[in-house]
Amino acid sequence: MDTIELIRRSQQGDKEARDKVITDNIGLVWSIVRRFMCRGHEPEDLFQIGSIGLIKAIDKFDMSYDVKFSTYAVPMIMGEIKRFLRDDGVIKVSRSMKETAGKIRITREKLSNLYGREPTLEEISAELNLAKEEVVMALESGAEVESLYKTIYQGDGNAIYLIDKLEQTNDENENMIDKLALRETIASLDEKDQELIRLRYFMNRTQTDIAKELGISQVQVSRLEKKILLKMREKMM
């Protein structure tokens, strides 16, 4: 029996089907838990919290979504763990991330009034000139998991962030988690550091080009880049 049918039965009250979906996705929960190790909590505790996110994903998953269940479940599980850590004072959301989330909420309301419906992720991204992933991470950082899904999933699958950028391989879940972690880490940097990373790794600019644009020496760019990468590595660990 495939996952979608199991979820359908689970939502109809079939406990065995529900347990089967949970068992099949235990590895997914542990993959996410590993990203939050060394934060002052036992892995088993984080696993229990992540499992709550998995159960919520099972209960809320809409079969009309043209997306794999794991793609839907990953942000839900991550959100549950991050909300727990945030409430415990471990995770601090950057001010820039909060400001972005505020702009998104205002834009969503404006577009809702304009279109007479909930705007898609692409429409919000275009209005604010932000990448879809940035919109997702900003909303998720505010622990607005449910409203996040209302915005993204419109039934045709086109609004599922990252779905069109991930290869269908056995490492799909790990790739998705890696991308989310990287996006969040970059978003936590100050604007100048973000700009250097954007120029260097997303626009493939040389250190010499960046030095000219920023009005500093190539040596300074090199030092800054190493410092930023070290900072990012520490955050992701």
Description:
The chain is mostly helical and 237 residues long. The chain folds into two domains: 182 residues, no CATH class; 47 residues, Arc Repressor Mutant, subunit A. Helix content is 70%, strand content 0%. It contains 13 helices and no strands. Helix 4 packs across helix 5 and helix 7 packs across helix 8. The longest helix has 21 residues. It is globular. InterPro entries: RNA_pol_sigma-70_dom, RNA_pol_sigma-B/F/G, RNA_pol_sigma-F, RNA_pol_sigma70, RNA_pol_sigma70_r2, RNA_pol_sigma70_r3, RNA_pol_sigma70_r4, RNA_pol_sigma_r2. One of its GO terms (biological process) is DNA-templated transcription initiation. Sigma factors are initiation factors that promote the attachment of RNA polymerase to specific initiation sites and are then released.
Give the SSE map.
Elements: H1 3-11, H2 15-24, H3 26-33, H4 43-60, H5 69-87, H6 95-115, H7 121-128, H8 132-141, H9 145-152, H10 172-187, H11 191-202, H12 207-214, H13 218-236
Q: How many distinct domains?
A: 2
| Structural class by SSE content | mainly alpha
Low-confidence stretches: 143-170
Shape: globular
Helix-strand string: HHHHHHHHHHHHH
Number of strands: 0
Largest sheet: none
Radius of gyration: 19 Å
Measured by DSSP, the beta-strand proportion falls in under 5%
Number of helices: 13
Distance between the termini: 38 Å
Mean pLDDT, all residues: 75
State the helical fraction.
over 70%
